[in-house]
């Protein structure tokens, strides 16, 4: 059984606990705190467990030249990449306002700390867990500093190899046992052929003592639901209020109706997964009583006859006789009363037959 732990106050992940669903708002709020609040409420209304943003200290995350380069994309919010990112970046005070709003609504709030300074700020405002974006997964000094803070971590694995992920696991594990690794492919939107859900069971074998999840950038919900069927314990999906808005993430994001359907579908699949124990269930008894087959006499069998297989047949019978799967156990046993052709062979009429008919 994979490790279970408390990812957020009162909310366990792993094992048989419900999948934890993260609505990744990221920077799809267009730099508008009113829209950001609408998206938090949307995530709550759709049944997500957590609303997540992206927090950066731009000078710590980018070098000067990266911030000053011209940015002429159709998705640009400024003449330079720095201007663009500054437009989308909320202040510390705005983050506290958003966190307060999420708390009032009753949905967990956190963010990806996109650099060490951002992580320190998120630690100060007491987020329940740190999200590590794929771009920082191989940033080992960052991982160590984040892990040492002791908060649970959710770590995406886009753009990484299995060998790197083994090193990531060891690096975090030295300082912090409470973390999740998410299978992820970093492209937007994601072609189904590049999803590679089979990495999920590979991660489960490589890292059997932590929960494994999935961060998806594909269109639609089906692949994410399939990830849950494969054992994903955390699902993260980008969300938007409108796929046509400016920004490269919107096309790979879920609109409210899709997010609500994702949550419903995950909860349905979780119910359907059930247990690994195969047995006849109480709900099957009416069908078994009506159509379940049992052993009947193919010919008339006089009292004292030693049974052979050619005397027996399997049919839907009334009353129900010896269970069909036990027909071979009757061979060589003696009947204690006459049995007419086509009558049920019930346990009481067979000497030394110890099993009772199943129901």
- Over all CA atoms, what is the radius of gyration? 30 Å
- Please count the helical segments: 13
What is the ordering of alpha helices and beta strands? EEEHEHHHHEHEHEHEHEHEHHEEH
Query: Which stretches are poorly predicted, pLDDT < 50 over at least 5 residues?
Result: none
Termini separation: 32 Å
Helix/strand-derived class? alpha/beta
Mean pLDDT: 95
Protein name: N-acetylneuraminate-9-phosphate synthase
Pfam families: NeuB, SAF
Catalytic activity: aldehydo-N-acetyl-D-mannosamine 6-phosphate + phosphoenolpyruvate + H2O = N-acetylneuraminate 9-phosphate + phosphate
GO molecular function: N-acylneuraminate-9-phosphate synthase activity
Describe the structure.
- Its EC number is 2.5.1.57.
- GO terms for molecular function: N-acylneuraminate-9-phosphate synthase activity.
- This is N-acetylneuraminate-9-phosphate synthase.
- It catalyses: aldehydo-N-acetyl-D-mannosamine 6-phosphate + phosphoenolpyruvate + H2O = N-acetylneuraminate 9-phosphate + phosphate.
- The strands form three sheets. This protein has an eight-stranded parallel β-sheet with strand order 5-4-3-10-9-8-7-6. A two-stranded antiparallel ribbon has the order 1-2.
- By secondary structure, the protein is α/β, with parallel strands linked by helices.
- The chain has 13 helices and twelve strands.
- Helix 1 runs parallel beside helix 5, helix 1 runs parallel beside helix 11 and helix 7 runs parallel beside helix 8.
Features:
single chain; 359 residues; alpha/beta; eight-stranded parallel β-sheet; two-stranded antiparallel ribbon; 13 helices; 12 strands; 33% helix; 16% strand
